[in-house]
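HUMAN:
Just now I want nothing more than another pair of eyes on a protein record. I would be glad if you read both lines and explained how they fit together. I have put the entry right below:
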Amino acid sequence: MAPAAVEHPPARLTVLSGPSGVGKGTVVAEVRRRHPEVWVSVSATTRRRRPGEVDGVHYHFVSDAEFDRLIAEDGLLEWAEYAGNRYGTPAAPVRERLAAGAPALLEIELQGARQVRAREADAQLVFLAPPSWAELESRLAGRGSEPPAVQEERLRIAQAELDAAGEFDVVVVNDDVARAADELVGWLTAPSPRSLRSSGAPE
Protein backbone atom coordinates (compact mmCIF):
# COMPACT_ATOMS: atom_id res chain seq x y z
CA MET A 1 0.00 0.00 0.00
CA ALA A 2 1.34 3.41 -0.96
CA PRO A 3 2.29 5.69 1.94
CA ALA A 4 -0.17 8.46 2.75
CA ALA A 5 0.60 11.76 1.10
CA VAL A 6 1.97 14.40 3.42
CA GLU A 7 -0.10 17.57 3.36
CA HIS A 8 1.77 20.86 3.19
CA PRO A 9 0.23 24.28 3.74
CA PRO A 10 -0.41 26.15 0.47
CA ALA A 11 2.19 28.62 -0.73
CA ARG A 12 1.58 31.97 0.91
CA LEU A 13 1.96 35.33 -0.76
CA THR A 14 2.43 37.91 2.02
CA VAL A 15 2.56 41.64 1.35
CA LEU A 16 4.24 44.03 3.81
CA SER A 17 3.29 47.69 3.49
CA GLY A 18 3.17 50.81 5.62
CA PRO A 19 3.96 54.52 5.55
CA SER A 20 7.26 55.95 4.41
CA GLY A 21 9.76 56.09 7.27
CA VAL A 22 8.14 53.30 9.30
CA GLY A 23 11.12 51.01 8.72
CA LYS A 24 9.86 48.47 6.19
CA GLY A 25 13.31 48.02 4.67
CA THR A 26 14.94 47.71 8.08
CA VAL A 27 12.47 45.05 9.23
CA VAL A 28 12.86 43.09 5.97
CA ALA A 29 16.66 43.25 6.32
CA GLU A 30 16.28 41.84 9.85
CA VAL A 31 14.01 39.09 8.50
CA ARG A 32 16.74 38.19 6.00
CA ARG A 33 19.36 38.16 8.77
CA ARG A 34 17.37 36.19 11.36
CA HIS A 35 15.43 33.97 8.95
CA PRO A 36 17.56 33.40 5.83
CA GLU A 37 15.13 30.72 4.67
CA VAL A 38 12.49 33.38 3.96
CA TRP A 39 12.40 34.46 0.30
CA VAL A 40 11.91 38.19 -0.23
CA SER A 41 10.95 39.64 -3.61
CA VAL A 42 13.24 42.42 -4.89
CA SER A 43 11.24 45.32 -6.36
CA ALA A 44 12.14 47.30 -9.45
CA THR A 45 12.25 51.09 -9.11
CA THR A 46 13.01 54.16 -11.17
CA ARG A 47 14.33 56.14 -8.19
CA ARG A 48 18.03 56.79 -7.75
CA ARG A 49 20.14 54.58 -5.57
CA ARG A 50 20.78 55.84 -2.04
CA PRO A 51 24.22 55.47 -0.43
CA GLY A 52 24.84 51.86 0.58
CA GLU A 53 22.09 50.36 -1.61
CA VAL A 54 23.04 47.48 -3.90
CA ASP A 55 21.37 46.85 -7.25
CA GLY A 56 19.58 43.48 -7.20
CA VAL A 57 19.66 43.31 -3.41
CA HIS A 58 17.72 46.34 -2.16
CA TYR A 59 16.03 47.08 -5.51
CA HIS A 60 16.45 46.48 -9.22
CA PHE A 61 17.25 50.04 -10.28
CA VAL A 62 15.91 50.58 -13.80
CA SER A 63 15.36 53.44 -16.23
CA ASP A 64 11.94 54.86 -17.05
CA ALA A 65 12.15 53.20 -20.47
CA GLU A 66 12.87 49.79 -18.91
CA PHE A 67 10.00 50.23 -16.46
CA ASP A 68 7.69 51.10 -19.37
CA ARG A 69 8.77 47.89 -21.12
CA LEU A 70 7.99 45.78 -18.04
CA ILE A 71 4.50 47.29 -17.84
CA ALA A 72 3.85 46.73 -21.55
CA GLU A 73 4.93 43.07 -21.33
CA ASP A 74 2.87 42.38 -18.18
CA GLY A 75 6.11 41.70 -16.39
CA LEU A 76 5.01 43.30 -13.11
CA LEU A 77 2.68 41.78 -10.52
CA GLU A 78 1.89 45.32 -9.39
CA TRP A 79 3.31 48.78 -9.77
CA ALA A 80 2.69 52.22 -8.35
CA GLU A 81 4.04 55.75 -8.46
CA TYR A 82 5.19 57.13 -5.14
CA ALA A 83 6.79 60.52 -4.42
CA GLY A 84 7.67 60.99 -8.09
CA ASN A 85 9.19 57.53 -8.63
CA ARG A 86 7.75 54.22 -9.80
CA TYR A 87 8.03 50.91 -7.98
CA GLY A 88 6.95 47.46 -9.14
CA THR A 89 7.20 43.75 -8.35
CA PRO A 90 8.70 41.56 -11.10
CA ALA A 91 6.08 38.85 -11.60
CA ALA A 92 8.17 35.91 -12.81
CA PRO A 93 10.25 35.28 -9.64
CA VAL A 94 7.14 35.46 -7.41
CA ARG A 95 5.16 33.09 -9.62
CA GLU A 96 8.06 30.64 -9.73
CA ARG A 97 8.36 30.71 -5.95
CA LEU A 98 4.65 30.11 -5.36
CA ALA A 99 4.53 27.41 -8.05
CA ALA A 100 7.26 25.59 -6.12
CA GLY A 101 4.99 25.59 -3.06
CA ALA A 102 7.05 28.09 -1.06
CA PRO A 103 5.87 31.36 0.53
CA ALA A 104 6.92 34.72 -0.85
CA LEU A 105 7.26 38.08 0.90
CA LEU A 106 6.70 41.38 -0.89
CA GLU A 107 7.63 44.78 0.56
CA ILE A 108 5.62 47.34 -1.39
CA GLU A 109 3.66 50.59 -1.09
CA LEU A 110 -0.05 50.93 -0.38
CA GLN A 111 -1.11 51.35 -4.02
CA GLY A 112 0.72 48.18 -4.93
CA ALA A 113 -0.71 46.28 -1.97
CA ARG A 114 -4.21 47.16 -3.16
CA GLN A 115 -3.38 45.89 -6.65
CA VAL A 116 -2.15 42.60 -5.25
CA ARG A 117 -5.29 42.22 -3.14
CA ALA A 118 -7.43 42.80 -6.25
CA ARG A 119 -5.49 40.23 -8.31
CA GLU A 120 -4.65 37.68 -5.60
CA ALA A 121 -7.62 37.30 -3.26
CA ASP A 122 -5.74 34.90 -0.96
CA ALA A 123 -2.73 37.18 -0.50
CA GLN A 124 -2.10 38.17 3.12
CA LEU A 125 -1.62 41.90 3.72
CA VAL A 126 0.49 42.98 6.72
CA PHE A 127 0.62 46.65 7.73
CA LEU A 128 3.77 47.88 9.48
CA ALA A 129 2.82 50.73 11.83
CA PRO A 130 5.00 53.17 13.81
CA PRO A 131 4.76 53.23 17.62
CA SER A 132 3.30 56.77 17.30
CA TRP A 133 2.81 59.58 14.80
CA ALA A 134 5.50 61.63 16.57
CA GLU A 135 7.97 58.78 16.10
CA LEU A 136 7.16 58.58 12.38
CA GLU A 137 7.68 62.34 11.97
CA SER A 138 11.02 62.04 13.74
CA ARG A 139 12.14 59.16 11.50
CA LEU A 140 11.24 61.03 8.31
CA ALA A 141 12.93 64.23 9.45
CA GLY A 142 16.02 62.28 10.50
CA ARG A 143 16.66 60.90 7.02
CA GLY A 144 18.27 64.16 5.93
CA SER A 145 18.35 63.01 2.31
CA GLU A 146 15.35 65.00 1.08
CA PRO A 147 14.35 68.69 1.05
CA PRO A 148 11.62 69.93 3.46
CA ALA A 149 8.96 70.08 0.71
CA VAL A 150 9.47 66.40 -0.08
CA GLN A 151 9.36 65.49 3.62
CA GLU A 152 6.08 67.38 4.01
CA GLU A 153 4.62 65.49 1.06
CA ARG A 154 5.79 62.20 2.55
CA LEU A 155 4.08 63.08 5.86
CA ARG A 156 0.85 63.89 4.03
CA ILE A 157 1.00 60.55 2.19
CA ALA A 158 1.99 58.74 5.40
CA GLN A 159 -1.13 60.03 7.18
CA ALA A 160 -3.31 58.75 4.33
CA GLU A 161 -1.53 55.39 4.50
CA LEU A 162 -2.05 55.13 8.26
CA ASP A 163 -5.76 55.74 7.67
CA ALA A 164 -5.77 52.69 5.35
CA ALA A 165 -4.49 50.26 8.01
CA GLY A 166 -7.99 48.81 8.37
CA GLU A 167 -7.74 47.35 4.86
CA PHE A 168 -5.00 44.98 6.01
CA ASP A 169 -5.30 41.52 7.57
CA VAL A 170 -2.65 42.15 10.24
CA VAL A 171 -1.02 45.19 11.86
CA VAL A 172 2.53 44.81 13.20
CA VAL A 173 3.91 47.70 15.29
CA ASN A 174 7.57 48.43 14.62
CA ASP A 175 8.58 49.36 18.17
CA ASP A 176 11.44 46.84 18.14
CA VAL A 177 12.98 45.69 14.86
CA ALA A 178 13.89 42.16 15.95
CA ARG A 179 10.48 41.55 17.52
CA ALA A 180 8.67 42.96 14.48
CA ALA A 181 10.73 40.74 12.15
CA ASP A 182 9.93 37.62 14.16
CA GLU A 183 6.23 38.53 14.30
CA LEU A 184 6.17 39.07 10.52
CA VAL A 185 7.72 35.64 9.92
CA GLY A 186 5.12 34.13 12.25
CA TRP A 187 2.35 35.55 10.09
CA LEU A 188 4.17 34.50 6.92
CA THR A 189 3.92 30.86 7.97
CA ALA A 190 0.45 31.05 9.59
CA PRO A 191 -2.46 29.01 8.14
CA SER A 192 -4.54 31.26 5.86
CA PRO A 193 -5.72 34.86 5.49
CA ARG A 194 -9.31 33.95 6.24
CA SER A 195 -8.46 32.11 9.45
CA LEU A 196 -6.20 35.00 10.45
CA ARG A 197 -9.13 37.40 10.28
CA SER A 198 -11.19 35.18 12.56
CA SER A 199 -8.51 34.19 15.07
CA GLY A 200 -6.69 37.51 15.37
CA ALA A 201 -3.33 35.86 16.14
CA PRO A 202 -1.05 33.12 14.82
CA GLU A 203 -1.10 29.79 16.62
